[in-house]
Amino acid sequence: MKLCMIGTGYVGLVSGACFSDLGNSVVCVDIDKNKINQLKQGIIPIYEPGLEEIVKKNIKNKRLSFSFDFDKSIKDSDIIFICVGTPKKNNGNADLTQVYHVAKKLSKLINKYKIIVTKSTVPVTTGDKIQTILSKKNKDNKYSIVSNPEFLREGEAIRDFIYPDRIVIGSNDVKANRIMNNLYAPLISKGAQYFHTSRRAAELIKYSSNAFLATKITFINEIANLCEKIGINIEDISIGMGLDKRIGGRFLRAGPGYGGSCFPKDTKAIISTANFFKTNLSLVKSVVKSNDNRSKLLLLRVYKILNNRIKNKNITFLGVTFKANTDDMRDSSSIKMIPALSKKGAKIKYFDPTGFKNEFSKIKNVKYCNSIKNSLDKADLVIIHTEWNDFKSINFKNFAKNKKFIIYDMRNIYSPSKIKKQGFKYFSVGR
Ligand SMILES: NC(=O)c1ccc[n+]([C@@H]2O[C@H](COP(=O)([O-])OP(=O)(O)OC[C@H]3O[C@@H](n4cnc5c(N)ncnc54)[C@H](O)[C@@H]3O)[C@@H](O)[C@H]2O)c1
After folding, report:
1. Alpha helices in 307-426 (DSSP H)
2. Which of 245, 253, 287, 427 is the most buried (most CB within 10 A)?
3. Which residues line ligand 1 (CB under 6 A)?
């Protein structure tokens, strides 16, 4: 099948590359010319394990290409995936400017029957609005509009695409459902559940799933606060709860709070949708509030660890992205913590396996280091912010030559007793 991915970011690039690997002919388009030029040369603009190999392989066998020629790419394709961003507006609503811009462009380019699929996360009824835009210039039998929300996780995106728990297709017509089922047949035959529902339900399934996962994370973070007061190990609670199949152990690990490009914006967007439909999502509202407060709470812990003497303290961040195996900084808690510490006069160094971050380039006294060793030099406090494998077996004794730094392990990577035995003051989350 001939596919066109509009928007070549985390979702468009990963799913485009994987669809081509399944034997489809895929063209990825984007308004970012720099990105497309890089991709044409096989340079991958994002950090995603395994992606480069799949992209290079499929460029070579001519199943995957990159273009900024929207008109030709769209006209030549049978299925068009909208994969553009839907960022958060100040009022919490999803900003659908990019989606509607694409819909307007598409409306002029329907030369034969096409399926238009929204993979971008869009509020319920967006598919209806895209339909209204397309219907102004096209007969109804020339296109179908389908919702196919994407559930991949950055850092595990390839695996998630190839072995998804489920494929959700929201479509109100039989023909489009049949074609989408065919497209996903190779994944269905490997065990993925194919769930066909109405377009509006598919749109809401995505937001409800993210709101639920965000709730799980926030729940365990609040229980971690309680554990700290009582002296119970949160890890025991997570394991003990997770063994119940109704609960499950995933997304039940205490840490700095959820971040990234999806949960923060999607929890706020579902609240906005509910407000529009005059429904009070009080649970999700309190999740958002609790998570917004999370980095403040951890910062207060940092101040306490340093006896409120922050000025001129050398603080090292190991990892600054919102989670491991991604270069994505969107809504990472480090974005709140580092400027707050800098404002109080701390001198901050950070090392991240995905390199320098523009987000901190204008912040006073913040320095990027190109190795763990350099970042730990002269540190008073080391904050393990992200759970990269690179940080899981550091021999801290080798780096603490003349003085022992304090370690604040926000991901509970290390065993408190082992680190304390080495003479370090060690703090973690909920234990
Ligand atoms: N990143 C994730 O883990 C993830 C997972 C599931 C769903 N989603 C959803 O998928 C959507 C895309 O997310 P992402 O992380 O891939 O975003 P992204 O910012 O990485 O990529 C979006 C791309 O769209 C391009 N773009 C913007 N306007 C365009 C236009 N008019 N025409 C063509 N290209 C255009 C941008 O240049 C950019 O390259 C969002 O709605 C997001 O919520 C993301």
Report:
1. 334-343, 372-376, 396-399, 416-421
2. 287
3. 6-12, 29-32, 35, 83-86, 98, 101-102, 120-121, 150, 152, 154, 261-262
Quick one: tokens of 142?
A: 């020339």
C-alpha dihedral (327, 330, 335, 337), degrees to nearest 10: -90
Compute CA 123 distance to the chain's CA centroid, rounded to the nearest angstrom.
Answer: 18
pLDDT in tens, 205-251: 999 999 999 999 999 999 999 999 999 999 999 999 999 999 999 99
pTM of full prediction above 0.85 = yes
- What the chain holds in terms of domains, given with CATH numbers, is 2-197 (3.40.50.720), 199-431 (3.40.50.720)
262 catalytic, yes or no? yes
Q: What's the alpha-carbon Rg for the chain, to the nearest Å?
A: 23
The amino acid that residue 397 corresponds to is: K
Alpha carbons 293 and 313: distance in angstroms, whole number: 24
User: Could you tell me the two tokens for 320?
Assistant: 């600054």
Å from CA of 86 to ligand 1 middle? 7
Backbone angles phi, psi at 168, to 5 degrees: -105, 125
Q: What's the pLDDT score for residue 401? A: 76
Distances (CA, A) of 324 to 49, 116, 143, 298, 316: 11, 33, 40, 19, 17
CA of 161 to the centre of ligand 1 (A): 16
CA dist., res. 258 & res. 175, Å (int): 39
Instruction: Report the distance separating Cα 66 and Cα 27, nearest Å.
Output: 5
Question: Could you tell me the distance, in angstroms and rounded to a whole number, from the CA of residue 423 to the centre of ligand 1?
Answer: 46
Q: Which residue in 54, 15, 170, 171 sits closest to 6, CA to CA?
A: 15
74-83 per-position pLDDT tens digit: 999 999 999 9
pLDDT digits (tens, 9 = 90+) for 84-120: 999 999 999 999 999 999 999 999 999 999 999 999 9
Residues 380 and 306 sit within 8 Å (Cβ to Cβ): yes
